[in-house]
Design goal:
Distance between the termini: 89 Å
Membrane topology: Single-pass membrane protein
Largest sheet: 4 strands, antiparallel
Protein name: Type II secretion system protein H
Pfam families: GspH, N_methyl
Number of strands: 8
Strand order of the largest sheet: 3-2-1-5
Organism: Sedimenticola thiotaurini
CATH class of one domain: Alpha Beta
Helix content: 25-40%
GO biological process, one term: protein secretion by the type II secretion system
Strand content: 15-25%
CATH architecture of one domain: 3-Layer(bab) Sandwich
Length: 185
Amino acid sequence: MKSHGIESASRCLGLTLIELLITLTIGSITLTLAVPAMGTLISHNARTSAINTVVTHIQLARSEAIKRGKQTILCPSNDGSTCLSSTRWNDGYILVVDENSNKRADAGDLVIQVFQGMDERIAINSTVGRKRILFNWLGMSPGYNLTLSFCDQQQVIEPKAIIVSNSGRPRLSDTRSDGSPITCS
């Protein structure tokens, strides 16, 4: 005859010290490998976001010039109303209709759009001496071509550049327009 009684098991279900140490070792190895990769991913995403944002605004400036039949100016600005005499675009920039066609953003010119500053992780600088992009009524930028360099401040990833040609079209590049490496200073 079988007994239908309940067997009592006093067995403890837990981790041994060796199992715990193995788990901690695997976890620390995983973190050691994942943290640098995560920093690279964050930098890459910040750079990609900044590039996409600026390209979108360049295309907007070009299309506004064609639509309005007037020159437009895209230039760095930190106050949302005047162009800076700077090649640093991180603090923000504005899109202005050049109402009097003097190739400058004046007090009487219409500010179409104000773009706030970017992620400080990525530095955005234009070619020396190129402080604005001017588009004529045909959407071209003759004489105002420039290279915008996107540099990771922590130097985790390689820099990229947007090159705006005389035809007014932006393109992405791993080098400057002359083929030399992008310098970040």
